[in-house]
Amino acid sequence: MPSVLIVDDLLSIHEMLEAVIQPTGFNTAFATDGEKALSRYKSEKFDLVLADIDMKPMDGITLLKQLKQYDPNAVIVIMTAYASTESAIQALKFGAFDYLQKPFRVNELIATLKRGIEFKQFQNERMTSGLAPAAGASGIEARIIGQSPAVQKLIQQVRKLATVHSPVLLQGETGTGKTAVAEILHEALGAPEAQLVRIDCALSSEANFRDGLLGQNGAGGTWVQQAKGGTLFLQHLQCLPLDIQKELVSVLRNNAHTMRLICTTTEDLERLCDEGRFHDELFYRVASLPVILPPLRERAGDIPILAKHYVAKSTNPHFDASLVEFTEDAMAVLTSYHWPGNLTELFQVISKIASATETRIVTSEQLPLRLREIQHWPKLAEYLAGQEKQYIEMVLHACRGDKAKAAGVLGIDPARLG
Questions:
Q1: Contact 291, 177 (CB under 8 A)
Q2: Average pLDDT score over the chain
Q3: What's phi and psi for 127, nearest 5 deg?
Q4: Hey, is 85 helix, strand or coil?
Q5: pLDDT by residue (tens digit) across 121-149?
Q6: 296-417 belongs to which CATH class?
Q7: SS3 148
């Protein structure tokens, strides 16, 4: 039987919860404060912790933080008596599985505990089966290309995320590879029949959202039902209408344990929350595991590797496209350009050149004009820290040694160029 540790400083609450919970198939244990609960959890390991938020000397939020620090996979449900949802949202922010607002109904309590236990069982199955690490590790480096510290960090994050079921929020500019990461995480489920249900929140109508996402009575619509056992992939989440966001919270409470949820955004959702343009509780439900994908201008050292990779994927009627090479001048232009379209734009440029060129060696003159016009290049202050010297040399070379012109492009005092 699944075990639940109940933490509350009122013995009457213990007795009431025991009478309600035990007949539904749970073993219960008790602690009267956070410190005792933490000690007991470390020695006995419970499937779920049900803790009141208002306790002394250690309150429920502090207990939550310390439990998650000790065991990141701990499943914790917080009980709160406050009329507002501020404390509940704070609990979600620090990793609570869910919250219950007093006074709560018995069926609501049992349903929440069952969802928490199902989630715990899912975690245990993935940890013991070995499927997720193997599937998650397969092909990551082949699909996330680069050797820069930012990319290596991203690869390690994706490798870890492949072993968990929690919602993931992928943040980054357009074209940075968010969809590729989502596909990798979906494949890590290790279930070939599982669906990746992809919804672009920037393109769907409110009627479609209500039918596809919300359904009736928080059960979830057709998209949610299709994603069960697989992945619900919500792109451009910042575009979801605010009233839909509020109703989506209850859908996720009821269904999050049945599917993988991956969301993407090109905006800072926390800032949108502060501005009242994004629902707080939805943010903390989807952003428990945020991943920031770096823009290409911050990993310019990866461009030669990416260019070679994209060349190899191209076809050319004149010769083997994989033989295409770029001159030093051409590569200097490629690594200096700002790439507002990031990986997508680089792929389009490289594949078009590799497919159409009649010469195996590509010079800077064969690159698109927008790449060669230095007014499109970034200011020095916008360039990747640690590579300023190399960038200055590139700009000076492009300006044919004209220091005044180079300083204008770089946005610095000409005196800095000697």
A1: no
A2: 87
A3: -70, -35
A4: coil
A5: 766 765 554 444 444 445 788 889 999 99
A6: mainly alpha
A7: coil
For residue 273, the cross-strand partners are: none
Name the amino acid, one letter, at 183.
Answer: E
Quick: pLDDT tens for 49-72. Answer: 999 988 888 889 999 999 999 998
| DSSP structure string for 194-246 | --EEEEETTT--HHHHIIIII-STTS--HHHHHHTTSEEEEESGGGS-HHHHH
Tokens standing for residue 321: 């496209």
Where b means 16+ CB within 10 Å and e means fewer, 70-99 reads: eeeebbbbbbbeeeebebbbbbbbbbbbbb
Residue whose token pair is 């050292």: 301
Cβ–Cβ < 8 Å for 244, 210: yes
Q: Give the architecture-level CATH label for domain 3-129.
A: 3-Layer(aba) Sandwich (3.40)
Distance CA 99, CA 85 (A): 10
Classify residue 378 by its DSSP letter. Answer: P
- Highest mean pLDDT among 79-93, 118-132, 323-337 belongs to 323-337
Asked if residue 346 lies in contact with residue 339, where contact means CB atoms within 8 angstroms, the answer is: yes
Strands 76-80 and 98-101: parallel
Spatial separation of the C-alpha atoms in residues 351 and 367, rounded to whole Å: 12
Residue matched to tokens 């260019």: 307
* Chain segment 4-18, per-residue pLDDT in tens: 999 998 888 888 999
- Spatial separation of the C-alpha atoms in residues 11 and 61, rounded to whole Å: 20
Q: How far apart are CA 199 and CA 184, in angstroms?
A: 17
Range(s) within the chain of domains with CATH label 3.40.50.2300: 3-129
The superfamily (CATH) of domain 131-292 is: P-loop containing nucleotide triphosphate hydrolases (3.40.50.300)
Please report the beta strands in 345-401, taking only residues with DSSP state E, as ranges in sequence order.
361-362
Return the structure tokens found at 226: 């299709």
pLDDT digits (tens, 9 = 90+) for 272-285: 999 999 999 999 88
The DSSP-derived string for 41-60 is HHHH--SEEEEESS-SSS-H
Element (H, E) at 390: helix 388-398
Beta-strand ranges (E) seen in 54-117 are 76-80, 98-101
